[in-house]
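Sample pair:
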Amino acid sequence: MSSGKVLIGVLAGMAVGALLGVLFAPDKGSETRKKMAEKGGELADEVSDKFMKLIDELNQKIDAAKAKADENSANANEAAD
């Protein structure tokens, strides 16, 4: 299973858990809406941070692969000369 799918599953579970926790709390409607807005903002920030980390990791892997390909190409050109 790819790390992207695992990350999405974890984040979805966190969102559902947070939503159920807020909905079943014994608060007034206005307090519940306020808590939901706060949790939604926190979750959006978390998702954004994790997504940016994932993008950074992918970019690093791509850069490493490009560097390796350039190195192999240079080696092949030297061997051909």
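The two ends are 44 Å apart (CA to CA).
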